[in-house]
User: Fold these one by one.
Assistant:
Number 1:
Amino acid sequence: MAEVKKSNCSLRMGVSRLLVSFLLISPCHCQVPLVMWTSEGIALPSLDPPAVGQMMSVGQVKPYLTSALSTTPHTVVLFLQDKLSMEDFTVYGGVFGNKEDGAFPSLQAYLKMASSLLVLPSLARGVAAEVPALLQEVLGSPPLYTDPSSLTQQSLPTDPALLIIGLPYGSGTLTKDVLQQNDEIIDKVLQTVKAANMPYTAIYTGLQPSRVIEYSSAMSAQLVGRSLLQSPTPSPVKPPVVFNGTQGACILLWADTLNVSFQRRPNQWDSEDLADITFIPSVSLSGSSCSNNSSVLVLNYNNILNFTSLTLTFMMTKRFFPVSARHWALVEQVRLEYDGQTATFNGSRDIYSPAEYSYHCQMVSSSIDPQLVAFNNTDNAKFWRIHFTDFQVGAYCTQ
Ligand SMILES: *[C@@H]1O[C@H](CO)[C@@H](O)[C@H](O)[C@H]1NC(C)=O
Ligand SMILES: *[C@@H]1O[C@H](CO)[C@@H](O)[C@H](O)[C@H]1NC(C)=O
Ligand SMILES: *[C@@H]1O[C@H](CO)[C@@H](O)[C@H](O)[C@H]1NC(C)=O
Ligand SMILES: *[C@@H]1O[C@H](CO)[C@@H](O)[C@H](O)[C@H]1NC(C)=O
Ligand SMILES: *[C@@H]1O[C@H](CO)[C@@H](O)[C@H](O)[C@H]1NC(C)=O
Ligand SMILES: *[C@@H]1O[C@H](CO)[C@@H](O)[C@H](O)[C@H]1NC(C)=O
Ligand SMILES: *[C@@H]1O[C@H](CO)[C@@H](O)[C@H](O)[C@H]1NC(C)=O
C-alpha cells in the first residue's frame, strides 16, 4: 500500500517544481508545516522523519524540537506566519522550474546553504501556536516578540534567545505578494543575526493553515527536504493547466511532454506532443468536473493527428483504503476521444497516491514500463500509445 515510489513514479513536494496535492477530502484536515534550519556550517542531528500521514500533536513535536536543539545554536529565530500550508510552497514557490518567479527566493537560498533541515509537514491544528512555549521551555529563555523593522544588531538578545517574528498572510490575489515580502523579512532578519556573528537556528511555521487551500499532509520530511533543495531541471517555463471547480481551483496538471501516437496503418505511428498547445495557451477544459469522490479533467483539442476533435480525459477517484486508513487518489482511466471514437486506458495501480499528494511520474506510458493498459483487447486503445514525461497531476481541496 505504501509503494508510492514504485517504478519511476514518486511523490514530490517542495518549493521546486511540484504540483499540488490530491485533496478531495471534505472537510479538509487542517495542518501546518514547520521547517527548521540552521546557519551555515551547523548540522541538525539526524532525526527520523515523522511517520507518513502523522498529524503531529504538541507531545509529538516537542521531542523533535528538543533533539534538534540539543546540538543546534540556542539563538532561535522563529518566523511565525499568521497562516501557512504546504501549498503555499507548492503554489507560490517558483513551481514548474520558474524559480525566479517564486515567492521564496531567500528561504530557498537559506535552506540550500544549511547543511540540513528538519521538516515536520503536518502539525495538527493549534500546535504551532504552542511552539513558542515549547521553545521557551527547551531554551529556558522567554520569547522576545520583535518587529523586524526595529531589529538591529544591538537589539539582538544573546544566547540563549528566542526571537519571534510575526509575519502576516494575505488571502486571494495578495498571497504571493505577502509571501514575497515575508521572504524579504526573513532575509533581513537573518542577515542581521548573521552580521552579529551569531550562529542561529531558524524556524518557519504558521499559526493556522492558510485559508485558500487546506492541506492535509503526509509526506516524509526527507521528501520535502530533498525537493526543497532540488534545483529544477532546466525546461521552458510553462504554467500548469488549472481547472476551477465551483469553489476555486480543483485540478492541476503539468507535464513536460504529452505525447500521443496513433496507428493509422499497420507499422505507421503518427505522434504529436500535445504539451505545447496544452499549456501555452491553456487548452479548453470544457467537460471537466470535480466532486467529493472524483475529478475529471478533459483537455479539448482540434485538428490533431488529422482528427478534427480530440479530447484527452483523466478520470481520477478518491478511495478509502481501510488497511492504511487513508484516502488514496487514483488515476483510474485515461481516455482519448477522437472524432466520435473512444480509446480507454486503465490506470494501473501504480498511479495512485495518498490523497494529499500530487502524483508525479517521470514517465507515464502505455508502451514502455506501462502504467496505462488498454481497457480490453478490442478497445481502440490498441491503436494508441501514450507517453507523458515529467507528469504531475493533482487536485486541490478548496473550501
Ligand atoms: C481560475 O481561478 C483563478 C482565481 O482563483 C483565476 O485567476 C483563473 O483565471 C481561473 N481560471 C479559469 C480558467 O477560469
Ligand atoms: C512520441 O512517442 C513516439 C513513440 O511512441 C516517438 O516515436 C516520438 O518521437 C515521440 N514524439 C515526441 C514529440 O516526443
Ligand atoms: C461533499 O461532501 C460534503 C460533506 O462531506 C457534503 O456536504 C457535500 O454535499 C458533498 N458534495 C457532493 C457533491 O456530494
Ligand atoms: C462519495 O463520498 C461520500 C462521502 O463523501 C460517500 O458517502 C459516498 O459513498 C462516495 N461515493 C462513492 C461512489 O464512492
Ligand atoms: C492527413 O490528411 C491529409 C489529407 O486529408 C493527408 O494528406 C495526410 O497524409 C494526412 N496525415 C496523416 C498523418 O495521415
Ligand atoms: C479496466 O477497468 C475496468 C473497470 O474500470 C475493468 O472492468 C477492466 O477489466 C479493466 N481492464 C483491464 C485490462 O484491467
Ligand atoms: C471491450 O470493451 C468494450 C467497451 O469499451 C466493449 O464494448 C467490448 O465488448 C469489450 N470487448 C471484450 C472482448 O470484452
Number 2:
Amino acid sequence: MRKHANSLPPAPMLTNPVVRKAIHEVRRHIIAHLQKHKCKPDRIVVELAREAKMSAKDSDKALFRNRLRNRIKNDIIEEFKLGDLKQNQQRASVERVVLAVQQGSICPLCGNQRVKTAITPLMGAKGEDCELAHIIPRGIGGPNGLNNMVLAHTKCNRDMGRRTPRDLWGENFETEMNRVERMYADVERVDRKHVDKASEAKLWGCYFDKRDDDSKVANFKKELRDIQGFSERDLTDTRYATRQVLAYLSDALFDGKGLPERGGERLIFTTDGRWTGDLRREWGLFNDSHKSKSKGLSESEERARREKKRGDHRHHALDAIVIALTSRQMQLKWDQRLKTADARGITAEQYDEFCRQNRINPPAPFKSADELQEKALHAVYEQPGGNQERPVSHRAVKRKIVGALHEETLFGPIAKSNGLYKGSKSVLMLTPNHLRQARRETEKEAIERLARRRQLMAEVSEKDARKWATSTVKSKGYKPKIVDPPPDKSGLVRDRALRDRLRVPARGQS
Ligand SMILES: [Zn+2]
C-alpha cells in the first residue's frame, strides 16, 4: 500500500489472525474515507453481529404474543378447572394442553403406533398416560423451553431415555422425521386476524405459530455435535473482536479517546444489528429495483433473480446508511411507539397499520422517511445526474471465499494456481528467502507511477505527464524508490506489517 499523509497505523500484532484481519479491513475502509473526504470521520457507528438477538419487530410481536398466551392460559385454566392446583402443576398442565393441540393429539415419538391412545387436550390437562418430554435431552444440554418439548406417551418417553431422536430412531430416522414434519404441518391454525373470536382448541392452537413448529422440527434434526460446544465460544470471539476493533479505531483516529471507558466526548458508537433491518423497513430502504417486475415469475425465475441479487452487494451500502443513522434516540422513539400502542389497547393485528400511521422519522438533515428514501436510493442505485442504474460489479454468488483455510489463518488458496494452497510454517523456520524482499523500482514503473500522480495533481494531458515523469526519473539526482514486488510474485508472507517484523530477526540470523 502506498504511503500517504493520511495513513493509519497498521493493525496491531494480535495472536488471533481473524481479529487482525478484521481490523485490517476496517483500516482499509477508513483510509478510503480519508482519501476521499480528506478528513477524519466525525463519528463512527459499528454494527454488532446481526443474528445475535431478536429483532425489534420480533420483540414487539413477542409482547403481543405474551398477551395472547396469557389469554390462552386463563382460558385453559377455566376450561379444565385447574384453578386449585399449585402454580407449577398448573403451568405443567397448561403446557401439556397446548402441546397436545400443537401435535394434533399425536405422540411425536411413536406417531400413536406403539401406544394407540390419542393424547387429547383433556388427557394433557390431567397428565393421564402422557408426560412432557425433552426433544434434546436435558442431560446433554437441551434447553427447557417449550420449543424443545413435546407431549409423549409416558411409555414412549421412558423408552427414549437420554437419547436424541437421531439415536432413538437410528436408520429409520428419515422416515420418522417425515412423519413428524407432516404431523406439525397437518394441524390447522386459526389465522391471526380471527384469533379474537376463536375459542377452545382453535384458540389454544394459537399458543404456537409456524415458527415454533419449525424450530421444534429443527431440534428433532439436531446432531450431538450441533448441541455441544455450542456457540458460546463464537459469541466470546465476536465480543473480543469487537473490543479490539473499537480500541484500534480509538487509537488510530481519536488519540485513544472517543469511547466511554476512555473519557472525552463519545465518538465511536455501536448498534445492535437487529435495528438495521427494522429501520430499513421503517424507512422503506429496499434494494429491489425490479419489484414491479417480480410478479408473475415462475419459481425458478424468482430463485434466479434472488440469486443474482445476493451477488449484488449494493444493499450493504443501504445498511451502512441506516447504521450511521441508528442512534439511541431512534431506539427510544421505537420503544415509545410500542408503549403508546400498548396503552391504547392496539392489538397485534392492528399494530402494523398503527406503525404506518405513526412513522419514525430519520434524524436531521432528513425531514422525512420519504426524503431519506429518495436520496439514499438515488445515491446507491442511480448514476449521478441520470436515471440509469449505476453500473455495478459484484462477486459471483457461487465463488466461495469462506472455508477452513480462510477462517483459521491468513493463508489461503494461491491465486491462479488451482488446487494449491498455502500452508503455515513456524516463524523460526523462515529464512530471508521466504520473505518478499523489497527491491528498487524500475524506470518504467517509476515513470508510470509519477505520470499517474502528475495527472491527478495537475490537470495535464497524459502525454505531458509522461514527459514530465520521464525527465524526472532520468534527471541526475533521482534516487529509485524501494518498493515491494507485486502481490502475485510474493513470498510466503503477504502481510506487509508482519513481513517487516520478520525481516529484522531473519536477517540477523543468516
Ligand atoms: Zn407414543
